[in-house]
Amino acid sequence: MKKCILFLSVICVIFFVECKRNDSTNSIVCIKGTSLNEVKYLSSVFNYSKIIQLETIDKSLIGRHINKIKKLNNKYYISYDNLALLIFDCQGKFLNKIQKIGGGPDEYVQLNDFDVFPNGDIIILDNKKLLFYSENGEFVKKISLSITGFNIKVINEENFLICASGEKYSIYLINGNADIVSKQIETNNKPVLGKSVVFFAWENDRILYQQYFSNDFLSFNTQTKNFSNINLLCNEDNILSFENVKKYQKRNGHLNFIADNPNVKVIGGIASYTDYLFFSVGDQNSGFKCYLMNTSNNKIDYLLTENIIDDISFTHTFSLLNHIVLSDSEDCFITYIYPYQIIDGLNENIKLNEQPNYQRLYSLLKDIKNIENENPILIELKR
């Protein structure tokens, strides 16, 4: 039951999709357990880690439900509770906040998702509109959409990927006038679960969209603007394919195959930056294993079981991955941990008090008076 809760914690938004393949599926890489390197601590996997303490003042308070973290131009953009977007500099100092809830021309009903242009301008996705703001938070313009969107990915100034809900298709490529350029994955109103972040970087010119948490991915080439279908892993180990998702649907329309089919392997948490992909594969009976893959050669470098202690943020690997999955960065993984979680983690793992990362984090906590209300600490991880 605990594993189900952990796994489902990465799933946030409910929408309706059913896949209909349009072309052949190409396999990317196969897992071969005998060739993997299992490690004990994540500090031996990541060559680089940076700790950023976010400033905690009244205007910069972040709720417990972080939706997405993006790093660009040495700034951190953080959305939480589908309400607000906060901006911090590379040292964690608070810079700005966008929180304009309402029905006005410069307001949104719900901050479903956001992205940032290379020049620092911000785009926010409401249900059926896109709102553009300058990097200083000043409203620029609004574009109405003909579809209901929940996730967005900026391709360039004039092209955006939208993940939609309740529409005829799930993925739309639109231009700056909100015209539909392409639409992918035809739907038949079948219930499927989505995530806060659904678009993942793959090298420098591709974006991946995972169909449910199966082994089937839609790939978009940012240079050619072409879509293709791929398998991330071989299906020889009974990893769930999207074509088999409907086999596990209950009559009431909800998916509960983890409980009903405990031997079916699924791809759970997933995160990426342009050079590496971090993901978990497993089932309810045998648990989950996490893999770190180099996308330049599609080689899996490391295997980590879900119970491996992460001495960087003092949590278990699977919990760390669930946090990383919320990030959206091009040059590193970004995870986060609240100060009270650091204390709890160290109390559970006394031996980690001697780890160098403990000393780094503890130095940030020693002057905090109210640790429960403190903003999270960001941690950058890079190979």
Report what the structure shows.
By secondary structure, the protein is mainly beta. It has one domain: Methylamine Dehydrogenase, Chain H (7 Propeller), CATH 2.130.10. Helices cover 10% and strands 42% of the residues. It contains 5 helices and 30 strands. The protein has a 5-stranded mixed beta sheet, with no helix packed on it. It has a 5-stranded mixed beta sheet with strand order 3-25-24-23-22, with helices on one face. Strand 19 and strand 20 form a beta hairpin. The longest helix is centred in the C-terminal third of the chain and has 10 residues. It is globular. It starts with a helix and ends with a strand. The N terminus is likely disordered.
SSE topology:
Layout: H1 2-8, E1 11-16, E2 25-27, E3 37-38, E4 48-53, E5 66-72, E6 75-80, E7 84-89, E8 94-98, E9 113-116, E10 122-125, E11 129-133, E12 139-144, E13 149-156, E14 159-164, E15 169-175, E16 180-186, E17 191-195, E18 199-202, E19 206-210, E20 216-221, E21 227-231, H2 257-260, E22 266-273, E23 276-283, E24 287-294, E25 299-305, E26 309-310, E27 315-316, H3 317-324, E28 327-329, E29 333-337, H4 339-348, H5 356-365, E30 377-382
Parallel strand pairs: 2-21, 3-25, 5-28
Antiparallel strand pairs: 1-17, 4-30, 5-6, 6-7, 7-8, 9-10, 10-11, 11-12, 13-14, 14-15, 15-16, 18-19, 19-20, 20-21, 22-23, 23-24, 24-25, 26-27, 29-30
